[in-house]
Amino acid sequence: MVDIWGETTAGDGALSQEAIFFPGAGLDPLSDELLVAHGSLLAVVGGPAGRAAAREFIAALVPAYYAGGGGADGLRRAVANAEAAVPDPAALAFVAVVLAGDTLYLARAGGGRAYRVRGEAVDPLARATAPTATVGPAFSLGVPLRAGDRVVLCSPAAAEAVGDGQLLTYVAEQRAPREAAARLIALTRERGATDDVSVVVAFVRAAPLLSRGQAAALLVLGAAAVGAVGWLVWEVLRYWQGGG
Length: 244
Fold this sequence. Notes:
By secondary structure, this protein is of the alpha+beta class. 36% of the residues lie in helices and 26% in strands.
């Protein structure tokens, strides 16, 4: 189970030239079945190519990932599809992450970064990625996750302000990703970030004991049981009032 929130802000007060995506961020809602099967895809995209190109990249990335098999290979194919959809992919800086069960898969190009926060330990995930060629995006082979982990995606300006990520230990203290994202953006501004700043924050939760369908079925059964008990009490009262 993952709780996610993201925000993007412009450095000059105008419209941000960056774009973000996470399930529920504004595109057609992804079904629970897709999220269970393929995981949650998160992305922060910016760079000199501008807002239109960033949005086009995301618009191609998301359906390509969820139409495929998911995982590391699915992310690679989706990134290749998204790069083909924009005129100049080299002018984009992006970081894309898939949270699938207990594993994180990462793709990035440019100055964007991803971090895993586990208690007071922050891993910038730099060593988890390696370019497949002299140019082009870098991909991870898989980073382990567990309940309680926080995952933070930063655009280049936010990543520069955050540095090695050690100041992100505060994220583990927040109750919700919305609070963590708002505080992170404020922190990057305090540290001198003047360009566009975009972040996505995910909290990895323990899996619920029951699925939504199971919980709904249990509620129905519980309501039926309450109704049956009520009927039985009513019949007993009638019996005694009738003198047995």
